[in-house]
Amino acid sequence: MKVFSAICRVIIGLIIAMILIPYTCLGEYRDLSAEELKGMLDSGQKLYLLNPLSDIEFNEGHISGSVNIPLHSIMRSDKMPKNMDTLIVTYCLSQQ
């Protein structure tokens, strides 16, 4: 079951990448380390923290203050920020 879960998470990550890659030309896109994100959160930097996993996976654990918009509904969600200058940080997978 753990292998199946890991495979599903990899597939979800690839799908997210395929969806987000076309939008990289609209602004800066880069990877953040967990330490960088923690520093941003600790400093109070304004950002939109997006977790695109399923509701079930989100409820199993997530970063406080993050917004859950399952991958299949991101494009039609009204939860996405309207301001194009909003820094969006997307996370969905952790290695434990």
TrEMBL record:
InterPro entries: Rhodanese-like_dom, Rhodanese-like_dom_sf. SUPFAM superfamilies: Rhodanese/Cell cycle control phosphatase. The chain crosses the membrane at residues 6-26. This is Rhodanese domain-containing protein. Residues 52-92 form the Rhodanese domain. Keywords: Membrane, Transmembrane, Transmembrane helix. It comes from the Bacteria. It comes from Desulfosarcina ovata subsp. ovata. Gene3D superfamilies: Rhodanese-like domain. CDD domains: RHOD. PROSITE patterns: RHODANESE_3 (PS50206).
